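Give me structure tokens for this 311-residue protein.
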Amino acid sequence: MKTAPMDTNKSSFLKREWKSLKKNRTAYFFIAPLMITVIIILLYPIFKAALMSFQYWYMARPIGGHPFVGLDNYKQVLASDYFYNSVWITAVYIFFTVIARYALGLGTALMLNRNFRGRGFFRSLIIIPWAVPEVVTCLVFILMMDYQYGTINDILVRMHLLSSPVAFLGNTDTALGAAMFVNVWKGFPFVAVMLLAGLQSIPKDLYEAATVDGASAWRQFLNITMPSLKPVSVVVFMLLVIWTIKDFAIVYVLTGGGPSRVTEILTIFIYRLGFESFDFGAAAAGGMILLAISVIFTVFYIKATKAGESA
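Here you go.
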């Protein structure tokens, strides 16, 4: 007797859903190709990698199948000193490149927000580094940082800042810094464009009132500009962190993770597990760890975006 209302509610719910499906079938028809593409290109590879992370996929020692090994692949990754070395290098890489890209982007945005002749031209010009493909950027910098023929060495030696040329990409003391430099040069225009949009949304009346009250340009920057840019800045920081966590091409093309693993960020560590050691199970486990880290920052990004919309 008591289950009749529940059955009625369930039946009415199914009817409403069916009516909604029939009413919006055209919309679902147009969305279907996108959903199928996402499932094939994104969701299936993630599911496959997650499954592989619990299986034996050491191709250098095949055993005639891929049996489940539980958490052995994860234990292998977490027991590797190279893993923690790559995590530390990735953390250093993220910290310095994100700070540098934001600082340089903020300075560029402040300059481009001023009124001067040719401002439109320079605003369009600044986007070029971000628009150039990563591989092309890296190949250009490899030539510029060349030990014998690089223009950077030539300029620094002529300015007496270096006594002799330096192999920036082949020296353990300079390789990571050189990779960071290229990353910053490639990524700061995005920050500049985002912050420039934020600067243009700040009411001019605030600056005029502050000027009347006798506030200096520095006080206006601290009390008006930076607080007004906070919602945009939080989103920019989160995006930079998420993108840098999964960065691969810049460091790999420049140094391949060397010399002596000083530039082996987490993505290159995972790549080497899979395509140099042929331990695809451990590589999949490392990929799942990287995915979990990325998801954590993505959640923070979504929350920051919602907070910015409600502010």
